[in-house]
Amino acid sequence: MAGLPRRLGHAEEATLGEHLEELRGRLFVVLGAVALGTVVAFIFHGHVLDWLNRPLPPNHDRVVTLGVAEPFTITLTISLYAGFVLALPIVLWQVWLYFAPAFDPASERRVLGLALFSVVLAAGGVTFGYWVLLPRDIHFLTNYDTEHFQHLIQAKPYYNFVVTVLVGIVIVFQTPLVILGLVYLGVLSSRTLRRQRRMGYLITAAIALALPGPDPVTTFLELLPMWALFEGSIWLAFLFEHRRRKLTSSSATLGA
Prior knowledge:
This protein is an all-alpha fold.
């Protein structure tokens, strides 16, 4: 523990050399966490591959590899991605510790609250993507026009497809956080969102088209929760504004 970089206090002055030394120390911690996570993921790569293959239809329960070294290289790549996911809490914590001195205690609590909200949204996105979106999407695509095509699912494109879908749906599920951020900055208000609801649906559709999506079916299935999240964001914005007005009036009363 003594070798870990020291967190600077709020507004604590430090030289450029001290900042660079702290940055170097935190990078070492991040790289070490990713390396350790990759080793753990490689040891248990069979469970990771089983988890990724589970959305496949029963008649395609194993993916195809074409190269001699492809099973090993794909396993190593997936282990690296899984290791990064395992190390992500440490990575984000080190990034936060580096930038935290720029925030006062009140702002720090708000940032941490938004970060926790983002994690909850991301978890919801992965859950929806893995259990709802992927099985239906893969079933449709692998059964499309079977009279003219024989589906042999190659490992690398399949895993790229799964990762792209999950990343895309995680981005989609961050919609409430983005809208709350714009409301907090004063760019939007709940009243504006209610008045321009149709325009909001159109904008979310355009964003869904721009997000990672390997095919139109995936894009459409991503769009449905995005509309629901947008509608929920309007009510979250209303509650946020109500709470802020209440806190402002309380502060004014105490000041009087």
